[in-house]
Amino acid sequence: MSQPIALVTGAGGEMGHLLIPALREQGVGVIALDLVELDESIREQCVETVTASILETDVLADLIGRHTPTYVFHLAAVLSRKAEIEPDLAHRVNVDGTYELLKLCRRAPEQTPVRFMFPSSIAVYGLPNPTVKQEAGAVKETEWTVPSGVYGCNKLYCELLGAHLTRTPGMPDFRSIRFPGLISAETLPAGGTTDYAPEMIHAAAQGRSYKCFVLRDAKLPFMTMPDGIDALVRLALADPGRLSRRAYNVRGFASKASDIRSEVLKHYPEADIGFDPDPARQVLVDSWPEDVDDTLAQKDWGFSPKHGLSQALSDYLVPAMKKRYAAVAGG
Ligand code: SER
């Protein structure tokens, strides 16, 4: 049998860096697309790479036609903060881009449908105020799906659309994960609301001062990128009969910004981390749940994260960043 192929969009972003090697480990060949030219380190792992926008449907049609991917990992997206500033762009990329790609993945009804993996977000939830947020605690997938921001609206619509199309013969088998804030040692996010956590840690590892853009008490769920990638790959490989729904919560830990600061200080006692909240971003954080209930992901497809907050720092981030920044300093 020939090697299964995965199309990865937005491959040069944070998730792509770890997803591509993880797919290769599973024996999956990768075709990758990104708006900017991919690094040599990514290109050399792929069967083919293309520099194009997710909105260039002719380029995508050609790639899909030539490679007939078994999987699509549609990572390309405009994140939450940027989506508030540029809602038209966010709609085009996050909604139109997703719909067009779903249609391009159509197969003949008798063929096995493409498995279409869609990273969604805790932004699909909208709690009306911090008191309700605190009372709600860990929200289930069916609760509070009334997003307060453009990005959350985009993601929720695509989740619903994907689930709907899955019931149409020939359309993709759509599977989605509502990711919490993701923290990677390799890269930094851009344009997100949960960026303060990774930014705080990377700044400390480089000996730079950092002003956190949310309140000390702001609490959100997070997970490390390796746990996030493990979740995405597990769900992609899961037997369709095991799935009780199309969009799942996952989480590694739920922490206040001040808890993350304290944990960082254990490893970098000299770190200078202050707080200078940005009201526009605080509004989104206040509306996102302080934690999510991931019981269904555990039960249906064996989701099992390795890292709580303290392991995230001690077992993954601190050792990986030591190597990364030593390499940068050493040229
Ligand atoms: N991390 C994303 C953001 O902050 C949310 O999923 O935009």
Keywords:
single chain, 331 residues, alpha/beta, Rossmann fold, seven-stranded parallel β-sheet, three-stranded mixed β-sheet, binds serine
Number of domains: 1
Low-confidence stretches: none
Number of strands: 14
Q: What is the SS-derived class?
A: alpha/beta
* Named CATH architecture: 3-Layer(aba) Sandwich
Question: What is the H/E order?
Answer: EHEHEHEHHEHEHEEHEEHEEHEHEHH
Radius of gyration: 19 Å
Strand order of the largest sheet: 3-2-1-4-5-7-11
Q: What do we call the CATH topology?
A: Rossmann fold
Give the amount of beta strand, in percent. Answer: 15-25%
N- to C-terminal separation? Answer: 44 Å
Ligands in the model, by name, code or SMILES, are: serine
CATH superfamily: NAD(P)-binding Rossmann-like Domain
Overall pLDDT score: 96
User: Total helix count?
Assistant: 13
Describe this protein's structure.
By secondary structure, this protein is of the alpha/beta class. It has one domain (77-326): 3-Layer(aba) Sandwich (Rossmann fold). Helices cover 44% and strands 18% of the residues. The chain has helices spanning 14-25, 40-43, 57-67, 80-85, 87-104, 130-136, 150-166, 196-205, 225-237, 257-267, 279-287, 295-301, 309-329, and strands at 5-9, 29-34, 48-51, 71-74, 115-121, 138-139, 173-179, 181-183, 210-212, 219-224, 247-249, 253-256, 273-275, 291-292. Strands 3-2-1-4-5-7-11 form a 7-stranded parallel beta sheet, sandwiched between helices. The protein has a 3-stranded mixed beta sheet with strand order 8-10-12. A two-stranded parallel sheet has the order 6-14. Helix 1 (14-25) packs across helix 9. The protein is globular and about 60 Å long.
